[in-house]
Amino acid sequence: GAAVAERDLRRKLFWLIAIRVGISSLLLGSAVFVQLTSPGTYLGEPLFLLIGVTYALNILWTLTLKWAERYRWIVDIQLACDALIVSGFIAVTGGITSYFAALYVLPIAAASSVQFRRGGMMIATLSALLYLGIVLTQYFGLAGLLGVPFFDHDGTLPPLRIVAYTTGLNVFLFFSIAFLSGSLADRLQRAGARLERASNEIADLQAFNQHVIDSLASGLATTDRQGRILTFNRAAEAITGHPAFSVVGRRLEEVLELPPNVANELGHLSDPSRGRRVETSYRTGDGRQIDLGFT
Question: Does pTM top 0.85 for this prediction?
Answer without folding.
Answer: no
